[in-house]
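Q: Sequence in, structure out?
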Amino acid sequence: MPNIRPEDGTCFDPQMGIKLQRSQEFRMNKWSRLYRDLRALPSRQAGRLLMRKASKGWRARKAEISAKRQIRSIQNDLGSALVPGQVLHDLLDSKFTRLNGFPITPDRTRETAALLNQRFPDWVARCIGSANRICENRISLLGHEIHLEEPPAWHNDHISGAVWPVQHSGQLLNLRMNHGSDIKFVWELSRFHHGVTLARAFALTTDERFARKFLSLFNDWLKANPPYAGPNWTCAMEVAIRAVNLLWAGSLLVSSAAFDRRAREAFIKTLLVHGAFIYHNLEYDVRAVGRSLQPVNGNHYLADLSGLLYLSCAFPECRFASVWREFAQRELFREIRSQVDEEGVHWEYSPGYHRLVLEMMLSCLILLERQSVTIPEDIREKASKMLDFIRHYTKPSGGVPLVRDIDNGRFCILGEEELSSHDHLLALGAIFFDRPDLYPGQLFEDCLWYLGPRACEWHKREPAPSPSPPRMECAGERGSWIPYRRASRAGPSASSKLYRQSGFCVMRHDSHYLLAVCSPKGMQGYCGHTHNDFLSFELEAFGRTFLTDCGSYVYSQSPEWRNRMRSTASHNTLMVDGIEQNHFNSSQLFEIDSRVRPEVKHWSSDAERDLLDASYTLALADGSRVTHERRFVFLKNRGVWVIRDQVFGVGLHTVDTRFHFAEGIEIAAAGRGIYRTLCTPGPNLFLTALGDEPLSALIESGSVSRTYAAKTEIRVLHFAGSTQLPCERLYLLAPTLSDAGCEEWPLNELEGLRRLATQVVLQPS
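A: Exactly. Output:
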């Protein structure tokens, strides 16, 4: 979320009676960051940065004046916004006959709808079921079902009950709401994902009830959300995503009798207003990187460009469209080159946001291909490598890790799939780039809406190239376990791999998987989606996730929980003297220091084992420094992992190591230094602390969040002890298919495994 504030720092919400104010601490830290940046830059660059900061208000005001002038012109007379010679009457008729430049044409809509009805009746039934719930005013927001009022309360956070005031968006941008509200829920409703669901249902059934419901919601939204007023105009990313969803909905509803000339004119006006707002409120920033000023942008700016590109392609008749199109296409390619590294990892270093960025990119590349634009080869290669990264971080069960921030946000939802898997992107990318090695063996509804019959033909022609182990999952209480296959086809194969630039390391073989996090803070040190998770990891075996990251839970709704979930203690790593790896300020929910950086010292992988050595150095309260070195060893033929922690320093210190077990899994002691999961039926995990050093072990409660603003209690195994540095600790992680009632394995092999573990970790890199 943006971090600008109103001039006086306060605002009063009369509906809630709650005073909203920014903290003095935030202001002080903002100026200290600017002072630090200015000192690091050469004098000329420092002057540029200072001038940019000083002129920020003037530039914003100038942009607002230009945007409002365009918006008034569009709203007062739509014809005045068209290129000379373009007749509004012809536009309203012929435009919605062909829909050139829209995301899907009428012919393709009819073709895709017929294909879905004929071959995928289950998808059709799910879509109609979702649309019926929306007609009953039951809408899903980030995994939470809410019941809308009549008319809908577009400014309400329906989870907390808070109401955001309808005032100038510039004042609302940076209010700190400390009464448990989260603006994401306000934004999510106004993204109009529900509008696309209604439009898909209409395209599949031609039931006018769905079209009328969409237009009712759309008209209510227009009345309640005039431009620049209220929370739904505070963020250009939200305006852009809303515009893309409205374009998809309009494309699919074009044959509706309810979508008459009057509705079409209001529809075009609204979308062009969105374009004017986006173009003049781009979330672009230049920041100090080292000793120079560089553009440093993230998923917000990419969303802005994506929305602008969609609008300019849909309405070339608009006299602003050529400027929008040229700018958006040029900037989109430049940002992809900047934001995606050579190994295909988006530089915010969060799998959840990597997925969101790739959704935007693939959608835009497919749109440009339809516009007969030649996609530069390096852009295609970057997108293809991003898909490779998804293939590698996807677990053998098909799930995805909860590493760093993940908030369930989507660009455009054209199917009913859940975000527990990113296979929908693998399928879409495999078909678009003609890469069978990426294909998960399963088709998704969005593939058909994006690519039409081509997707079905490709699915029949290109099976996945190699078999994968049975897909398995946990379900129900206490880790009950259900083996299943996601599809009749085999899934994509992946191997162990280190992504050296981003620091993600995947160790995998058959059904065994570990993702280690050696990633620094992203976006050149400015990324707000980083956690204190250096050398943490997730672990899965035999289809069950045993050790998990904790997710992000919430952002502004609860600063306390936001900071707890990104703290060192919420990750599977080591903590010295209770000190955070990097300091973060409790009032800055998207800021974190980048003084401590992890470093990969060695990586090797062969048929027998994977070995990763990584470390970071931490400054303690007394000014001394300690170094944490962690070695991961994966013995593929034995299916076990050995972890060695070494802490180098001097003096007596407390060293805590935590292991967070996935939801539904109970753990218990099984001997001296031995702990095991209690899962029946199915696989279990033995975790053994090796060595002679006495450690106190506690089984504590923790939390994991797989859906935004929802959390589940989990068990945490906490090894603690005071020790003289330097010190060393060893842990053996041995998954087994034995049920919880079987005590024979691996206890009867424990001594041999201990000796093997000791030998392995003592070997030089």
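Residues 28 and 80 are 47 Å apart (CA to CA).
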